What we know:
Blueprint: E1 2-5, E2 10-12, E3 17-25, E4 32-39, E5 51-52, E6 64-66, E7 70-72, E8 75-83, E9 93-100, E10 113-118, E11 121-125, E12 135-144, E13 147-157, H1 161-167, E14 182-183, E15 199-201, E16 204-208, E17 215-217, E18 223-230, E19 236-243, E20 248-251, E21 264-265, E22 270-272, E23 283-290, E24 296-304, E25 320-324, E26 329-334, E27 346-354, E28 359-367, E29 377-380, E30 386-389
Parallel strand pairs: 1-11, 15-17, 16-26
Antiparallel strand pairs: 2-13, 3-8, 3-10, 4-5, 4-9, 6-8, 7-8, 9-12, 10-11, 12-13, 14-15, 17-28, 18-23, 18-25, 19-20, 19-24, 21-22, 22-23, 24-27, 25-26, 27-28, 29-30
Amino acid sequence: MKQFLQMGQNTSLHAANGHIEISYDISNTIDISLTAFLLTAVDKVQGDEGIIFYNQPSHVSGVATLLPHETVGQRQVHKLHFDLHKIPKDITKIAVTLTEDHHTGFANVQNLKAEIHVGATTIELAPVSFTKENGIVVLELYLRNNEMKAKSIWRGFNSGLEGLCKNFGVEVEAQQEAATTSVSTPPIEESKKVVVPSLEKVKGNVNLSKGQKSVIIEKTPVITATVSWETGTDYDIYALVYTKSGKQIDVAMFGASGTPPLQSYDNGAVEHMGDIGRTNQTTKTEVIKLRLNPNIVAVVPVVYSAQSNGTGSFHRYKVSMSIDNHNGTSVTIHANNANKNNRIYTCVPGILHNTDEGVMISPLELYSKPDSEFRPKLKIDKNNTVEVLMDQGPKNDYK
């Protein structure tokens, strides 16, 4: 059975458990996250444990669980499972929200759709038009006189997640301004100091090339690494992650010898946003999304062109990588030093170190040996920073 709810309407739910599905057209200009807030009778959370999001995808009670989002065709799909029989004492409502983490506004989100699935019933919530809003309360699940109900809300907040948090009583710590424009990379281990020169903390649009000094940018909740190239070949982007425990994690849509494909690591801390494949676009892009946490020491985006894609040089297709913190700073590294050798299949434009002061971006522009299908390998050097060793990792699977 199909049911429709307009903004402000509510309906009874005939079962306590089900799932919410929210979907929209995929676009590189947007970055949508789903967050659920467990609220008391005064519409406030009881603490951080009352927030369900990518880094805390479930509540201990089992009342709500956020699943990893999926790509279905040209659509991105978010799902939240719920069981209102397990709702904790003093919690009367679950508010399901969306944020647009690129801060371009929900006006850029095409064909947004929200549905509640309970048993054989599908309840579709008709969205309203949005402009500059970066946060939305989509719907509420709640108890009223022991009756389970759902309400279509579609209330927008220009300030995104911060506005939603304040609305639901979550304390938001103000970001402290940097006292100086010069910082040093902190140690991976407290007992070992990183020996690097002071670095400039930059803002605005910055271009780097091989041989130039590293820079620091402000660390924001979401940072994207976008690789762009001119049409004519099908590059694949993946990320190598070096963790605090000394492990290398490969986040890639395809596997390598002994390394299975992995689209997302650590509940979305490092996430590949999907393979663009072969299209007719003049400029192609693929995106790695970063939600850096203390477990991540460094991230290395890698550009790869499999032998099965045919030959084509990084120089010819003008490959570049842009690191954007979506708060006014973007750092771009161009493959200016790439030669015209068509048999070089792997390029590492740069490396990102996760520090307390910000994200340190270092231009590397490293290339594999001709005809090599082996991935890079990461290791800690004598200064306690991460080093990239080309052609030392596992061999990529045939694509």
